[in-house]
Amino acid sequence: MTDGPWLVVGLGNPGDRYAGNRHNVGQMVLDELAARARTSFGGRVGSLGRRPQATTAEVRLGTGPGGVPGPRVLLAKPTTYMNESGGPSRASRSTSACRRSASCSCTTSSTSPSPTCA
Fold this sequence. Notes:
This protein is an alpha/beta fold. The chain has two helices and five strands, in the order E-H-E-E-E-H-E. Strands 2-3-4-1-5 form a five-stranded mixed β-sheet. The longest helix has 12 residues, at 25-36. It is globular, with a radius of gyration of 14 Å. The relative contact order is 0.27.
């Protein structure tokens, strides 16, 4: 485990049209992590005109030996379509001071069925 905060980016497509779609599983995973940590996505990163590039939530995941709080994690959900998520992901990483080795993106597609780390 690395020192400092982790960044987990949940990819998906915006809007009600894509809610529950398999391409939004990354954002659904982040929703579940936030719910388990009893927090919500209130933070904002970057700007795309009037809307943020990503919404964020800061959490601690799990507990370590002896009940020590788990690692700090910034959960980020880009507000763009999946194919435009690079900018919001970079903005989230630079804002959170996460090292590249401590960043991961959650996505699914026909070519990548499991979460991948960058």
